[in-house]
Amino acid sequence: MSSLTRTATSTTHTPRFSDDRKGLLLGLIAVALFSLTLPLTRLAVAELDPTFVALGRALVAASLAGLWLWQQRAPMPRREQWLPLALVSLGCVLGFPWLTSIAMRSLPASHGAVLVGILPLATAVFAVLRGKERPSPGFWLMALFGTALVVAFALRQGGGSFHLADWLMFAAVLLGALGYAEGGRLAQAMPGQHVISWALLLAVPFVLPVVLLNAWPQRALMAQASGAAWLSFAYISVFSMFIGFFFWYRGMALGGVARVGQTQLLQPFLTLVGAAVLLNEPLTGESLLFAGAVIAVVGIGRKLK
Hints:
By secondary structure, this protein is mostly helical. The protein has helices at residues 2-35, 37-45, 50-72, 82-103, 109-116, 119-131, 137-157, 164-186, 192-215, 219-223, 227-255, 257-261, 267-279, 285-304.
């Protein structure tokens, strides 16, 4: 009887263990896809207009999202879900891509990687504020410490003062964190893939006319852009803005939000490596040190939440 019990218990626990591992793997794939966003954005905006890169990629992703929702026969969001979806759209579809695209015109991707490293902790702050939770004092201490680290890095790299690109990156992190937090809340009531897809479609009425007005006067210059610029644009449109979220949300559904969310701590390091390989940016000890410190603070802060 005990043997049968052990067998039954083993059978019961095996799928869960398998789902956990699968969730972590999917989370790692998503983080790897997202980590190339800043380097490839920098490649794209070197030859293409930042507004076109930011909003054009949203338009491409929205087209894919519309086809996917139609193929899935996805139901319309409920009335109370439209405002959170609008916040996801504002943060993840419009704000973060647009501001980072402008910043990448003058800011090294390795610099941006350290600044964006605070994004998971900023997301946790918005989740706390929107969810009316009562986090520990240690959480707030880590949030302040992480912010101080990022500010110190930006000042050190900027010769003692902030540049416009730094302010754009700070604003991008805030908007991205808002979008991530709202998306996380919505994903508890509707599939995560539906969240990003509806958020993309919600942005189309704004994105479409801006992209058309921006692209038409620059069509001659765009025709001269290199294949590398267009391949970079295609990557951030398809993978950074759309497919990456499918791996990310599916991974969290299988392995748990908290556990799979920890994989995001690897993103700054992967971005630094991507910037070194794709852009020949130096992989300095200072950048690695600050990135490691930010990651450590973010990891501790999330555990103290």
